[in-house]
Design brief:
2 copies of one chain form a homodimer. The first copy, chain A, has 385 residues and is α/β, with parallel strands linked by helices. Chain A has 15 helices and 9 strands. In chain A, the strands form 2 sheets. A 6-stranded parallel sheet of chain A has the order 2-9-6-5-3-4, with helices on both faces. Chain A is globular. At the A-B interface, strand 1, strand 2, helix 8 and helix 9 of A face strand 1, strand 2, helix 8 and helix 9 of B.
């Protein structure tokens, strides 16, 4: 096991009716700016429940944070906060609202020039506005981690940043607040959580048996409850199990002391930036291709994944790996998420385009062994067409 | 799944050489009192590493915290701290040192009378001295939870208390700091972590599939690495896996949203108070008895435990439960921990004595269904003789 530090200070408040608990979690004298997306929270009652929990408080709102939240949009919030003096952000939404709010939180007090440098150049974040969260879409884990992914329209980039300063202070996870999600977002959420787990698990053995068991437990649970919660969105127990599982898939725990990959995500972000596919749509196409192209370096864990997650115990090693990849594709397909670029009308030129972007960013040492660059990304994408 | 709140603010610093990290974790101006046990840390180099990490700091020491830490001993530390003005506690040791230090931390600023009331009467703890930890014995999980169990010699009681104020701020887990542990303590640690997991898992189904998988993952890992780390104490990887697993067994995570039992612990504490058995020795005797006596109310989870943890799939339900209990006893025995009171020379009168203590404490509604009192405790112990 590698040395590690694990510190996740986010307080999780989970269950039915828990939106009311925000009253205890947000300081009474805070000036609270509620951040949200396209407005579905105003139709499904979540916005009303939030406002009902904060009577007499100083509360404002900033809506319109889009999927793959854009720097341009977020900077409007930054200007509003600087002008009006809001000092607490309450993100009400899914991963995009959360990620966008994290950028806003870091950008408001940023004095080192253009806040885009936080994302593009890793400029140091010295402070951030405190964040609370009411999660409405189980998927990204952003509600209890320190990561955010931000896009910029003007340059077509989609890039990540991380600082412990943007851990939400608390996150309310009420499964009922997610009942009205469209099926596509639920299916995407299952794929996203599955892929987050694979990025931290499907690498090489690292003498971390508990982390392996936990990762396999997450994958098995997603397989167990994913199709059911998609089919019956108001089944409380299935949705609750999915919601908690998606949080644990990326709260830092299963990544403790183990190598991590994240090549699928890096490629996927470029695809979203170029072609506009949903984040999870890119993952469902790229991850099976990574498994196939990287079956050499990932061999031991692919065999373990096949056996423990899918019960594959017979055949040669390559047959078992083929079967594990096939079962992964079938699982994503069963959720209605495509696993080939051709199904989206994207051709073989995606290989070269992604390689060029890797080249431009100087990405030559990605993946758990630091051996994935432009050429390897192109090789991976040969299995994704 | 039941509603729950999960908030574990302890920062874990894990791995070789990490004792040096306490320099960054403890405020530079803190007046640090190091608390420890019988002095093994002075022989194995851990005390030296701690002191080497804090050059020029104000550091004192209070040793002699015994297994099953005693109120009488701990109050001497409280008086020392009040007299000398120490304002940060660094617990260096195992669960007893940690639990004792938590009591000290809560007792120092306690103004509501005798601090024993915190334990005996649930008196409110309004503040506590901050605690850091250097763990030398993987077992109790006390390094990242809010619980402590304290004994009082004068009345022969062993009782628990809990407050979020005593969560350690940080805990250093260096597997090498545990290499010199005697085998009995390592074996006890494996049993303790196994029992902690069962208390939160072996109840009744609660639509919490991920918590089940995580609990099973902990049990499987303890079975996988427990005997090896006992046989070869300097095998870093096995010890590291065991150490991290023992922490996760009782940091609050697997207990989120599920019913919990803890009857085995409540009975075990009385046995330790009366007969002086090690904590884990009592658990290894009582837990198989709880499984046997409570096979009705625990039936579904006993079958799941047998199948997923021990691979028991054939036979009638009762045959499978018998097999699961037998495998549990065999596992504890394989670690050198006895599973019958007769092996300790304790006779059948233990049943009545424990029942009397339950009666005295008014414990009539223990266990995951709130249906265990003096009579049921006696019935359980019939299977432990």
């Amino acid at each position: 096991m590698q040395n590690f530090t694990f510190h996740n200070p986010t307080k999780i408040v989970f269950g039915k009716g828990q939106i009311a608990a925000i009253a205890q979690e947000i300081p009474a004298d805070a000036r609270v700016l509620v951040t949200y997306g396209a407005g579905s929270i105003k139709r499904n009652g979540v916005y009303g429940a939030v406002m009902a929990a904060l009577p007499g408080r100083a509360v404002g709102a900033f809506g319109g944070i889009e999927p793959n939240p854009k720097y341009e949009t977020l900077m409007r919030a930054v200007e509003k906060i600087r002008a009006e003096g809001w000092d607490y952000l309450l993100a009400v939404g899914g991963g995009s609202v959360l990620d966008g709010t994290k950028f806003i939180a870091a950008a408001v007090p940023f004095t080192g020039g253009d806040p885009w440098d936080i994302v593009a150049k890793g400029a140091e974040v010295k402070s951030a506005v405190p964040i609370g969260a009411v999660l409405t879409l189980p998927a990204t884990g952003s509600e209890s981690n320190a990561f955010a992914v931000i896009s910029r329209e003007s340059c077509g980039d989609k890039l990540a940043f991380s600082t412990p300063l943007v851990f939400p202070k608390f996150a309310v996870l009420d499964p009922e607040a997610t009942f009205s999600l469209p099926p596509r977002q639920v299916a995407n959420g299952v794929v996203d959580a599955f892929a987050h787990t694979l990025e931290q698990y499907l690498t090489f053995p690292a003498a971390a048996p508990l982390q392996d068991r936990f990762a396999e437990g997450i994958l098995l649970t997603l397989i167990e409850v994913g199709p059911g919660t998609l089919a019956d969105p108001t089944d409380y127990e299935a949705r609750a199990a999915f919601m908690w599982t998606a949080t644990l898939a990326l709260n830092g725990l299963i990544g403790c002391g183990v190598p991590q990959d994240w090549v699928t995500h890096m490629i996927g972000h470029e695809i979203t930036a170029m072609h506009g596919l949903d984040h999870a749509q890119t993952l469902a196409v790229v991850f099976p291709a990574v498994m196939d192209a990287r079956r050499g370096p990932k061999r031991d864990k692919l065999l373990q994944y096949g056996e423990r997650v899918w019960g594959i115990r017979s055949g040669s090693e390559d047959e078992r790996i083929d079967a594990a990849i096939a079962r992964t594709r079938e699982f994503f397909s069963s959720l209605g998420v495509k696993t080939r670029f051709s199904e989206y009308g994207i051709g073989a030129d995606v290989r070269e385009k992604v390689a060029e972007r890797f080249e431009k960013r100087g990405w030559r040492k990605l993946g758990e062994r630091g051996d994935v660059g432009p050429k390897e990304a192109s090789e991976i994408l040969a299995y994704s067409l």
